[in-house]
Amino acid sequence: MFNIKMPLWLAYDHWTALRTAENVVARQMTHTLYPALEPGTQAYLTRVTEIMGGKSGELIARAHQNGRSPTIFGVEIGFNLPAFIIALAITAILVIGIQESARFNAVIVTIKVAVVLFVIALGFKYVNVGNWGHGWSSFAPNGFSGIGAGAAYIFFAYIGFDAVSTTAQEAKNPQRDLPIGIITSLIVCTVLYILVAECSPAWCPGPT
User: Is the pTM of this model over 0.85?
Assistant: First the structure.
């Protein structure tokens, strides 16, 4: 967005930066070894996974070269600078006062919800209902086990709604305001999750 180029060792911790570099190199090697494969296809991603799993000497060497991580006493280091700056900014806002942090939180939440709504609205243009399948086997190819695995992932997205209760001392009427805040946020997020979950399979077909 801002055309800022940052080395991997300044954007991630060391091991995450190394895995990211390995993924980039694996994609380059896949493109060289299998030029007929279209990037993004299942066959292409399978080859990328195989190359990353092989941990060849060329892959490791090129990943370290691309990462360009500095070393201290012979040990490569990484420093997540964006996360550090964000943590400092949030800390500063909290130090300034609860009123400013509440406004900041409202702005961040507005931006996040706007991004989700933008993705949903833009995605409706590319919805192909045929990708939903024509029966239970095609709609849920992994059956209830796949649905359960997906539910397990989204379960953690619901953790945190109780954090609203920590602001009880800031509410004018906690007995009325807190239940409204928790239930309303829960309903809004559930509706957004359902819309994204319904649209995502319609954007691209699942595995066959």
Answer: no
